[in-house]
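Hey team,

Filing this mostly as a record. A colleague (T.K.) asked me to run one chain through the structure pipeline before their review meeting, and I want the input and output archived in the tracker in case anyone asks later how it was produced. No errors, nothing strange. Just documentation.

Input sequence:
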Amino acid sequence: MSSITELTTRPRLGPAVASLAPLLVLTNYTVPMVTLPDTARALGAGPTGPVWILGSVALGLSSVLLVSGGLADDHGRKRVLVIGTGVLAAASVVAALATAVPLFVAARFAQGAASAAMLAASLGLVGHAYPTGPERVRATGRYGAMIGLGTAVGPLVSGALASVASWRAAYWLVAGCALALMAVSARVLEESRSPEPRRFDVPGVVLLSVGVAALVAGVTESRLGWGRPVVLTAFAVAVALGVAFVAAERRRPDPLLDLELFRRPAFLVATGGALVVGAAIVGLLSYLPSVLQQARGLTPMGTGLLFGLWSSLSFVVSLLSRHVRLRTAGRFALGLALSAAGFTGLLGAGSDGSMVPVVAGLAVSGIGSGLVNSSITHLAIESVPAHRVSMGSGANNTARYVGSSLGAAGVAAAVGQLGTASGGTVAVAGCVVLTAATAVAALLTRA
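Output structure:
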């Protein structure tokens, strides 16, 4: 009897356990958002130090997400998830012990690489468990909700622990949670992989990973000037490797990324939309807590509570998004439109005016983000062949976190060059325009 119960329980537990991965990844991703000033001071960060403290995890994520997706599809999604979770635990210990910016940044980069494996493999497991239909819509809605919940938990937990202990305490907590998730995943998850495994695309992996890393590094360093030699060199390397990647993938029988997928409207919306979501939503909100703390004197805990409103609404709306009777691209467009409308309330966030527009703006954009997370998660696995769901997840999240690096660096550059008030306004206005334009584009597609 116990074996029968185990067989019937594990299939239901598997997607639920896999959906804990984005919760932990986004919690870890947002941990430094509200403790950035304290972390920078403790590590002796220079002018670009805070940008690297924020952006290094996104660099690790974006560099290996697509690679992780291919490995998960071909060599086992459970295996990749378990290994990634173990690496996250080890890297979190290093981050908690770091005493200088280079070591901390290296640890956050490793956390990002581990998070890439977790995201690509976990969404692949969910997509494999629910191949199509209403169950897949519900499952991807729950998965997207975990993104919103993680975004809420990270700042709140980090702010609370910083108030009673230290900014380092959050990284010890992440390490413990990662070890627990690794143990549960190894016990509960069923292994799955593509029935059509491919040969490992070494040239594609090297060209893409190094090219994306060069792009993100160039954008991060651009805070001190776009014409600096290190920035121009990084961009030149990124362009050259990007061109070489496309040329190499066209010739390979088993490419890391099937370029023919870009002929599919749904894939274009999923990847292009993820890039904009990363830049205009994740990138903006990654740096906005620092703007509010500098301009309005908010504490880490106060900032965490404020952004908890945004992410809590995102969590709830994502869970309920299946009741919005629109095609997936339509839900995505509606979410972007609401995000753009909400961001208009943040136009004065860098000044010392009333907090009412800021709170209202975060609430409206949080509702929009819930629709965005659920719909783009569904598009990511719906727009690719069934046996390549982890690759679809990897492509989508690569675009998202490349965008987040671009967005966070852009906001930092605007604030650094124009000041907190004017720079914050310019950055928010740019995000409003970009998000609204993408909503119109998504609405006009046939996805």
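Quick notes for T.K.: The two ends are 46 Å apart (CA to CA). Residues 288 and 426 are 13 Å apart (CA to CA).
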